[in-house]
Each structure stands twice: as structure tokens, then as C-alpha cells.
Amino acid sequence: MRGIKEPLVVAGGDCNITGFDANAEEKFWTVTGDNVRTMKFIPWTNNDTQNELVAGSDDFVIRVFKGAELIFENNEDAKIMDM
Asked: I need a labelling partner for 32 at 20 to 30 A (CA). Which of 17, 24, 26, 58 fits?
């Protein structure tokens, strides 16, 4: 994630995604539309060397985040259960 240099555990929650460091301190937080069901880091854009966070949630939306910034979203016909 942009600006974060240390390993994080990233957890989806009720309308949010949170990243914790090795000391369980919150180092990242962003809002999503609903309960996060699945997440994956992938190279969404070819403009840089960083992976973006793709998250699927119960409101039938796939969202792509560059850091905490929402850069893309797509509505689907059902809950996103796996990527």
C-alpha cells in the first residue's frame, strides 16, 4: 500500500479494511461499502510497480484501492465470495 514500508496484516470488516503491523497497531484504514468478503493484491495498473488492493463485498461491488484511495469500482449481480 502506498507509503507503507512494513509488512501488514490486512483484514476486511464491516464497511472497512484495516491494516495492522507486527505490534497490532493500526497502520492503514479505509472505508468500503459493505462487509468485505474477499481481498487480493494484484497489479491493477501498469503505471507503477505497486500492487493495488481489490476487495469484494456484500453490496455486490468489486472495489480497487491504491492506498486508501478508491480508483475503480464495478457492480456485480451477487455477493463477491472469492477472487
From this structure: 24
